[in-house]
Amino acid sequence: NSKPIMVESKPLLDILEQEDIKRIDGMKIDIEGFEDKALFPFFDSAPSELWPRVVVLEDCNKRLWENDILNKMKDIGYVLYGRTRGNQILKLANNALYSDGNSTSLHYRR
Fold first, then answer.
1. DSSP letter at 50?
2. Is a pLDDT exceeding 70 seen at residue 108?
3. Is the distance from CB of 107 to CB of 58 less than 8 angstroms?
4. What is the C-alpha separation between 52 and 28, in angstroms, rounded?
5. Is there a contact between 43 and 51 (Cβ–Cβ < 8 Å)?
6. Pairing between strand 78-84 and 26-29?
7. At 90, phi and psi to the nearest 5?
8. 91 pairs with which residues across the strands?
9. Which residues contact 86 (CB under 8 A, 6 or more apart)?
10. Distance (Å, whole) CA 65 – CA 40
11. What is the pLDDT of residues 21-65, one digit of tens each?
């Protein structure tokens, strides 16, 4: 048995604001079963213009989620685009528009 390591964390939206990030084209999430705890507050509070166009989300630890972040993302406009071992690739639906007027697009090689 190893001792737990405490790691300082901040809400995703706070980090993006602190770094003055205005747009996210793609984001990979791999936080060992805490994906729901990071993403639910983000999607509930961030403006939709800041939502990532593409998300690669580790789902092999989803049994640890208190809330199903995949269903939440599908409810707000993400669609399943592909899978890798242990990950789902989601993108905002093509009809999701940003303030810059561009719709989402993704080229993915299998």
1. G
2. no
3. no
4. 10
5. yes
6. unpaired
7. -120, 145
8. 54, 79
9. 58, 59, 60
10. 11
11. 999 999 998 888 889 999 999 999 999 999 999 999 998 888 999
CA–CA gap between residue 20 and residue 60 (Å, rounded):
31
* 84, amino acid identity: T
Copy the structure tokens of residue 106. 């993704």
Q: Is 58 in a helix, a strand, or coil?
A: strand
- CA distance readout (Å), 110 to 67, 70, 87, 107: 29, 21, 13, 10
Q: Outline where 46-91 has alpha helix (H).
A: 69-75
Here the tokens at position 56 are 């690669």
Alpha-carbon distance 67 to 50, whole Å?
22
For residue 80, the number of C-alpha atoms closer than 13 Å in the C-beta half-sphere is: 10
Q: What is the pTM of this model?
A: 0.77
What's at 17, amino acid-wise?
E
Using only C-alpha atoms, the chain has a radius of gyration, in whole angstroms, of 15
Residue type, 43: F
Sheet holding 87-92, edge to edge: 26-29, 54-58, 87-92, 78-84
